[in-house]
Amino acid sequence: MHGLKRYSSKETTITRKEDANPEGKGANGFLLDWYQSEPRGVVAKPQNQVLAEFFTSMLVLSAKFKYKPVIGVANYLYRFDGEWSLSLIAPGEWSDQRRSGFAGTCVLQHDMTWTIAPSALLREDNAVSEAIGRFYDAFAETLDSDLTLEEVLPYYVDKMPYYQRLYANALSRSVRGTVTLGDQRSIRCRDWQQRLPRLERVLLPFKE
What we know:
The protein has 6 helices and 6 strands. The protein is an alpha+beta fold. It has one domain. It has a 4-stranded antiparallel beta sheet. Helix 2 (47-61) packs antiparallel against helix 5. It is globular and about 45 Å long.
């Protein structure tokens, strides 16, 4: 893997029980979900890439959705009625009103980070790009702290619905592994904040 270090978290791995409930109900269902959301293939990454993946992943996880995302499957992020929502329904299958809020195509990766292929709408000034800008500002404000990045990760956010909370925890475990491998654990959030580029009508402006 081109010299990149890999991460395997023994402390967070949960062995799948033989009698796990295949329908995902009760305690066994939670353990199965936890096992399936274990970050895999975590590697050390440049700071800009860590920030980009943290930003986009938090944007996706701020959206409303009531299903379990699957690795490698396309999901579609929309801004509708003042809220973010994630759907398996592509823009072409919606009405014009819903399609006008399309922000991008999102894919969950094996390391539990999310990537987004931005919609063409983000090249223009509109309600979607403005909402992205506000989210970016809030993200930057979160980093205005003397805490480390690990200390602001969303390991458990009680107000989040179940799947958002589960995958936010998985994201946190992934980022923790990445910054550990990259010897970045001691870097303060304000130092990370200095690495943020200016957001100008693009969703992912993070390039080396």
